[in-house]
Design goal:
Outer membrane efflux proteins (OEP); 1 helix
């Protein structure tokens, strides 16, 4: 039997001058892990605790167990699992989960409480913190053989209407229901050509208390068997695909992604939606893996259904370089260039006509960072020194120009 683990303790002191204090002057955080291994069974225990634990609407003080045995891994307590970016995306839940990897199969199951109920407090007027108790259940089943893989994901989450006794009329919180399904996979179509893709469909009911019947595809008996359906139910699509070519020490990929306006699931905290991405990425390593380079560039567009008053196009470029100079010295550098070009639609008004020279807006943001890590000490006492340098620049221009050019080339500067 072996026992090993670690502990972290951090403190934050906060001071302000000339404005109202927005947090406690002293905060501490403690976290750690202990793993007990007996024969082929490993039992990891993780925890986190803070003096702010009682002030969070969702629990900060957490405990979890993750016992493993050969190809069986279980989760108990506060845990998170990630099925995909479009389904269950790392949402914390209180419950249990299991991951099975027998042979070429990969089976993941989870179930538990996603959100705890938070009742309305008239004394503190916590209108923005009201929350229904939310339960979630999910399954991911996959099969992999060599360079070929396919996964099917099902996820279901819904609020418990009776978890709140009273909800003020002026509250925007409504009990929600959600069912998500996704199919993703990858395959090698030629010797060095890899094809990857995913398609996800999310049906979400914004208000389970709405008694008006749906008048669209959600009349389907199949969908009704999984969730509550009414006039507030809507369906959204998200899909992506990429084609990559592998060299001996490099890989180049062409990527495409589409996410419908309004796409979301109850299995994540935040989802980007209403966008379409076209990107080209390149990665390579040299010097026996000591030097790694990654380059990503492309364009992103929104307002896919044309219902917004403004359409934005984003030009994106980034580069990441990491080098292991020696066993004790590592250097990492990054650079990114994000350009936004927004074209506003003219809104007509019988009493006022907006000036045409203020319709369009251009923004360019550049970020760069350089980090060096020097490792000191020995196997008993390890130390490290970190040196970091960050660079940020932002340019904003508005006017009547019709295009900002590639990364700002040709855009007005005044």
């Amino acid at each position: 039997m072996t026992i090993h683990g670690g502990i972290n303790f951090n403190t934050v002191n906060y001071f302000v001058n000339g404005m109202e204090s927005r947090r406690d002057p002293f905060t501490w955080f403690a976290s750690g892990n202990v793993t007990i291994s007996l024969l082929d069974v490993a039992i990891p225990l993780t925890y986190s605790y803070s003096n702010l634990g009682g002030k969070f609407t969702q629990p900060f003080n957490q405990f979890s167990l993750h016992p493993t045995y050969k190809w069986i891994k279980t989760h108990a307590g506060y845990s998170s699992m990630n099925f995909s970016n479009y389904t269950l995306a790392g949402h914390l839940f209180l419950g249990g989960g299991i991951e099975l990897t027998p042979g070429k199969w990969n089976i993941q199951l989870m179930g538990g409480r996603l959100n705890k109920p938070i009742a309305y407090d008239a004394v503190n007027d916590n209108l923005n913190q009201i929350c229904y108790k939310r339960l979630g259940f999910g399954m991911k089943t996959g099969y992999r053989s060599g360079d070929h893989e396919v996964n099917l994901i099902l996820f279901k989450a819904n609020d418990q209407e009776n978890s709140l006794v009273f909800v003020p009329n002026n509250s925007s919180v409504k009990p929600m229901d959600n069912f998500v399904t996704s199919l993703n996979g990858k395959t090698k179509i030629f010797k060095n050509v890899l094809l990857e893709g995913e398609y996800a469909f999310s049906a979400i009911t914004e208000n389970m208390r709405d008694e008006t019947e749906a008048e669209n595809i959600f009349q389907s008996k199949i969908i009704k068997s999984f969730m509550n359906v009414n006039s507030s139910t809507a369906g959204y699509n998200a899909y992506k695909c990429s084609v990559g070519y592998k060299f001996i020490k490099a890989e180049i990929k062409i990527n495409y992604e589409h996410i419908d306006p309004g796409y979301k699931t109850l299995g994540g905290y935040f989802f980007n939606n209403d966008l379409e991405n076209y990107t080209l990425s390149y990665s390579a390593n040299a010097l026996k893996g000591k030097l790694n380079v990654g380059i990503n560039s492309g364009i992103q567009m929104n307002n896919l259904n044309g219902q917004k008053s403004a359409t934005t196009k984003r030009l994106v470029g980034s580069i990441n370089i990491s080098a292991a100079i020696s066993q004790k010295i590592n250097i990492t550098g990054t650079y990114s260039n994000f350009s936004n070009f927004t074209r506003n639609r003219l809104r007509t008004d019988p009493f006022y006509t907006p000036l045409g020279d203020s319709l369009n807006f251009y923004n360019q943001t550049q970020n760069g960072s350089l980090a060096s890590v020097f490792q000191l000490g020995n196997n008993t006492v390890k130390q490290n020194i970190q040196l970091m340098l960050n660079y940020n620049q932002s340019v904003n221009v508005s006017g009547g120009f019709t295009t900002a050019g590639i990364y700002g080339i040709g855009a007005p500067v005044g």
